[in-house]
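Weekly structure sync, notes
Attendees: PL (lead), two postdocs, one rotation student
Agenda item 3: pending single-chain targets
PL asked that the sequence for the first pending target be pasted directly into the notes so everyone works from the same version. It is reproduced below exactly as submitted, 341 residues in total.
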Amino acid sequence: MKAAFVVDKNKVEIRDIDVPAIKDDEVLIKVKTVGVCGSDLHLFKGTHAFRKPPVILGHEIAGEVVEIGHNVTKFKVGDRVTVEPHVGCGECEFCIRGLVNICTNKKAPGTPGWIGTFAEYFNAPEKAVYKIEENISYEMGTLVEPLAVAVHALDRVTVKEKDSIAILGSGTIGLLTLVAAREAGYKNIICTDTQEFNLEMAKKQGATLALNPLKEDVVAKVREFTNGRGVDVAIVTADAKVIVDQASSMVRKRGEVGIVAMITEEIPVHTYNFVFNEITLFGAMTYETKDFAKANEMIMNGLDLSDFVTQRLPLDESQQALDILNEKKENVVKIIVEVSK
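Predicted structure, written out during the meeting:
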């Protein structure tokens, strides 16, 4: 079968490899669509924390079950599915608490023992597989995974008020966080980004304000909008040297700042705001199983994210897909790679 490998910095190569053999508790999926994620871009650029070339890209997937293991009972050949792409060790303190996302020994696509999803076939354990309804496209099934990231970020918030939230960065995860916040009942959602296309997309999806930090003082604008009080929560979904300081400066006293973005380089953070205003800072790492299940339910119930799919490319053009996301010479939110029809 064909698979797209990152073989060196900024270089993708299509290779022929064996179809994975499934275990008794696994299903084999004929991959239909996969999504290009920001973490794939980190791998492509050589900055990923633990995935190193040569390795198959991808973890966002939708496809059709073509084979089931002897112990599989919930799925049959022909089922349309997506996959929660991580499996915990099942024994550590975090797995016992249901926190597979921070299991120190978890397995994920593109790490030893599990191939990535940019391949014609992909194996997955039954417990990580979710059905896609017949009326839901494979593209929307692929978007369950990034939506789960946004759902988890909001689940980490402990502030009860939902009057206002700021989302700093309106790329794929930022826009999905906007959608999740909208669906969760936040009254005023403020989005920032340096790309006008992303800001227009944010407004289309219900953002109350869409601000460009290159053109205006976003902290002053947020303070003005909230009558000097500040937003209840700020979620950081992009990488910029001043972005955490921006977040802490626009949050109210006893508010919260959450960081979803995988910022792999050291950035300066002015801690005074956190102390003076008793602001809570938290991180949000991927998602728990309950978050993935909720995201899947939202999309199966008809949440339409089709506006976010801005490019579609075949597997053979995976290099171009990563180049588009890296260079941003086109308006881009989510790139879908169509592996098979």
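Discussion points:
- The chain is about 30% helix and 25% strand.
- The chain has a mean pLDDT of 96.
Action: rotation student to compare against the earlier draft before next sync.
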